[in-house]
Specification:
It comes from Lepagella muris. With about 350 residues, the protein is an alpha/beta fold. It has one domain: Alpha-Beta Barrel (TIM Barrel), CATH 3.20.20.80. Helix content is about 40%, strand content about 15%. An eight-stranded parallel beta barrel has the order 1-2-3-4-5-6-8-9, surrounded by five helices. It is globular, with a radius of gyration of 20 Å. Bound molecules: ligand G3I. The site of ligand G3I has 8 residues, from loops.
């Protein structure tokens, strides 16, 4: 029998992938067979985001999300909803009135409630858990100045959890964010989880997105976040795991010289050098072993995509990169770090 990820990790955590609409609609049969074979959990990469599923105030678009949920249901998978409230890919109308001005706090609360209730009710009993609020806190621990925060204030988060629990009392509810190893952000989330619990609200898990790189985070900070989040009593989930194989580009770097820019955009025009690939695999092996070490508190690992060619990282932080962040390469072959691990040949 073929060694699979879902069998290998069955006593540790569920193992999943973010799924694009093209895949659900049958346009990528290779990705379909990989996902069906290896994963027991899926999350929608884009189709449940506000601008997609609720593009205008009285218009919901269900086709893609329905197909995604059917895909998971047909395969008996754990289905994760992503995401109910997020400043990015928020439908343009959501926080505005007809003149383009911000709506009042009361109006925005009502819209949040309607949106959360309508979306969750449609998939009640089918979705295992929801990313209720995505990316609400900045690295320094302050609140992101999103429309929700600007109009309602901090209260928008407990309200969102209240509305979500009312809509589907059986669904798990999560907070989700990136850079969760940064101390200021870690501390702010610990405080927020405790605050939600103190108010008697349901919160089941904290999502550490884990869009990581070859040089960040360091494993001590990463582990510290796993432990401190778990100590608040919630489950810990690695919700969007991928690891760029390319040198980190400083955000905001302004490269006016086009040769330097191209070198930064595509540092390996002849493909990923063997030593970089070996380093990438070794680091991913350590990352997976860190998760296994904490499998008593980590309940899910989700990769943000299936094979390298479909990763958002090929467009980030600039278009036209060629990155190698996922467990399968562009030919849909499982990479050594994972193949060795599930074959029982892990280096550690
Ligand atoms: O659907 C349109 C298509 O019609 C159009 O032709 C094309 C042209 O650019 O754009 C398509 O939309 C793109 C969409 O992905 C689907 O491919 C958007 O431009 C693009 O912005 C969007 O990017 C997504 C990104 O979230 C948006 O912020 C990525 O696929 C998705 O992987 C990424 O996922 C996020 C998580 O939700 C939250 N955490 C970070 C993570 C990575 O950014």
């Amino acid at each position: 029998p073929v060694a699979t990820m879902k069998d290998y990790f069955k006593n540790d955590f569920t193992i999943g992938a973010a799924i694009p609409v093209s895949h659900v609609n049958g346009a990528d049969p290779k990705a379909d067979s990989i996902v069906t074979l290896h994963y027991n959990s899926i999350v929608a990469e884009n189709c449940m985001k506000c601008e997609k599923i609720h593009p205008e105030e009285n218009v919901y678009f269900w086709d893609d999300a329905d197909a995604f949920v059917k895909y998971g249901t047909d395969r008996g998978m754990e289905i994760i909803g992503h995401t109910l409230l997020w400043h990015s890919q928020l439908a343009p109308w959501f926080a505005k009135d007809s003149l383009g001005n911000n709506v009042s706090a009361d109006v925005l609360k009502q819209r949040m409630k309607d949106h959360i209730t309508t979306v969750m009710t449609r998939y009640k009993g089918k979705i295992h858990g929801w990313d209720v609020v995505n990316e609400a806190i900045l690295d320094d621990g302050s609140y992101r100045k999103s429309p929700f925060y600007e109009i309602i204030g901090e209260e928008f988060i407990p309200l969102a959890f209240q509305y979500a629990h009312e809509a589907d009392p059986d669904a798990e509810l999560y907070l989700n964010d990136f850079s969760m190893s940064v101390p200021g952000k870690r501390d702010a989330y610990v405080k927020l989880i405790k605050d939600l619990k103190a108010r008697g609200l349901r919160i089941d898990g904290i999502g550490m997105q884990s869009h990581i790189g070859m040089d960040y985070p360091n494993m001590e900070d990463y582990e510290k976040s796993i432990v401190e989040f778990a100590n608040t009593g919630v489950n810990v989930m690695m919700t969007e795991l991928d690891m760029s194989a390319l040198p980190t580009v400083q955000m905001g770097a302004n490269i006016s010289d086009s040769v330097a820019f191209n070198a930064m955009r595509n540092p390996y025009p002849d493909g990923l050098p063997a030593e970089v690939s070996a380093h990438w695999n070794a680091r991913m092996d350590s990352v997976m072993n860190l998760y296994r070490k904490h499998s008593d508190v980590i309940t899910r690992i989700t990769f943000w995509g299936t094979q390298d060619g479909m990763s958002w990282k090929n467009d980030f932080p600039m278009h036209g990169r060629t990155d190698y962040p996922l467990p399968f390469d562009r030919e849909y072959n499982l990479k050594p770090f994972m193949q060795n691990m599930i074959n029982g040949e892990s280096s550690s």
